[in-house]
Design goal:
N-(1-d-carboxylethyl)-l-norvaline Dehydrogenase, domain 2; UDP-Glc/GDP-Man_DH_C; 3 domains; EC 1.1.1.22; Rossmann fold; eight-stranded mixed β-sheet; single chain; UDP-glucose 6-dehydrogenase activity; NAD binding; 17 helices; oxidoreductase
């Protein structure tokens, strides 16, 4: 089989490389000449573990290629995927679909045989029908169907998510389109992956419903963590106690500074706007969005409180600025709220992130960037952990203590044990856990 993948961002590049690993011939298309040239040289523009090897292997096998020429890429394809960005639209929070609709117009110009046009981008309900209408208006004679195939890839583990997914969701407008999509995913049938085939609208809504539910779950445990701090309970034990209930599940019950990244912030907001537009508001998700926005700002206040109520003239060492580990994605990262708030309060911020500093430098002016975790610490008044990278989980605490002016750690990801930190002589602040003495470990 042959497909074209329009867009070489996170979703397009990972999906294209993984399809090629299935044995499909994939042509990835992008208008960014610099990006295409880098990809042809084997340079991967995003950080995703294992992606460089996957791309290199399939390019060498002749199954994966990169081009700016959509006409050439669409020759003889069974399907063309639209995997372009759908950022939040400025002003109203709706998803910006201009790139999706632009891709549909270009596809229409090059259709010369039956092709399934697949929206892989996360798009609001009704987008697939509009894509169909755009192509039909431009090419009433064209033979095509439109399908929706939302992605469920977690940054940092995207390849595994594609190769061994919980499910595949396909919204198809005809049996013929459904058959093409099933053939593409045939390798997953062999490992008995559930394939959910439904309507365009249902598939589009399923993606948003999944992401907003997970965002609500994160926000729920964050609020429970705040309650734990008031009553002396341990949020991790609460999470385990409820997560073992099969109706609830254990995932996405880890407290932190709020969700970020490329999906949850924009998808929750887009679904809220869609629901309001059709007169069926989602009050729960509206509240989730509001709480998460406020929480990220409140995290700077925790750091300031742990430093005695003021960071004016003090140096704060920050470990991690990406929204999560194993990615260089800075989109809606909590650090984008926390670091500027600390700077506004008079702090000098010295930071390190294993992958995201090249992106963060553009977004966080005035930060001093270190070469490694220990490079942030010398003479700092405190250290704050914002991202739970593995290399931050086993720091030499004696070395950390010796480098800081005062042994103050604010652990916004709860990666250390309060008892261990007390024994090491730290004033330790985490989220929703009691200190060894029975009070809260708030510093």
């Amino acid at each position: 089989m042959r497909i074209a993948m329009i867009g070489t961002g996170y979703v397009g590049l990972v999906s294209g490389a993984c399809f090629s690993e299935f044995g499909v011939h994939v042509a990835c298309v992008d208008k960014d000449a610099g990006k295409i040239e880098r990809l042809k040289r084997g340079e991967i523009p995003i950080y995703e573990p294992g992606l460089d090897d996957l791309v290199a292997r399939n390019v060498a096998a002749g199954r994966l290629s990169f081009t700016m020429d959509l006409k050439e890429a669409m020759q003889g394809v069974d399907a063309v995927f639209i995997a372009v960005g759908t950022p939040s639209r400025r002003g109203d929070g709706h998803a910006d679909l201009s790139y999706v609709y632009g891709a549909a117009e270009e596809i229409a110009r090059h259709l010369d045989h039956y092709t399934v046009v697949v929206t892989k981008s996360t798009v609001p309900v009704g987008t697939g029908r509009e894509v169909e209408a755009i192509i039909r208006r431009a090419r009433p004679d064209a033979e095509f169907d439109v399908a929706s195939n939302p992605e469920f890839l977690r940054e940092g583990s995207a390849i595994g998510d594609f190769m061994r997914p919980d499910r595949v969701v396909i919204g198809a407008t005809s049996d013929r389109a459904g058959d093409v999509m099933r053939r593409l995913y045939r390798p997953l049938y062999l490992i008995e992956t559930p394939i959910v085939v439904t309507s365009l609208e249902t598939a589009e809504l399923t993606k948003y419903a999944a992401n907003t539910f997970l965002a609500a779950k994160i926000t729920f445990i964050n609020e429970i963590a705040d309650l734990c701090e008031k009553v002396g309970a341990n949020v991790h034990d609460v999470a385990r106690g409820i997560g073992l209930d099969g109706r609830i599940g254990r995932k996405f019950l880890h407290p932190g500074p709020g969700y970020g990244g490329s999906c949850f912030p924009k998808d929750t907001l887009a679904l809220v706007r869609t629901a309001q537009q059709v007169g069926s508001p989602l009050r729960i998700i509206e509240t989730v969005v509001d709480i998460n926005d406020k929480r990220k700002k409140q995290m700077a206040e925790r750091i300031i409180a742990a430093c005695g109520g003021s960071v004016d003239g003090k140096t704060v060492a920050v470990l991690g600025v990406a929204f999560k580990p194993n990615t260089d994605d800075m989109r809606d990262s909590p650090s984008l709220d926390i670091v500027p708030a600390l700077q506004a309060a008079g702090a000098h911020v010295r930071a390190f992130d294993p992958a995201a500093m090249h992106e963060a430098e553009k977004l966080l002016p005035g930060v001093e960037w270190a070469k490694d975790a220990y490079g942030t610490l010398e003479g700092a008044d405190c250290v704050a952990i914002l991202t739970e990278w593995n290399e931050f989980r086993a720091l030499d605490l004696r070395r950390v203590k010796s480098m800081l002016k005062r042994p103050v750690m604010i652990d916004l990801r709860n990666i250390y044990n309060p008892e261990d930190m007390a024994k090491a002589g730290f004033t330790y602040t985490s989220i929703g856990r009691p200190s060894p003495a029975g009070g809260m470990d708030r510093g």
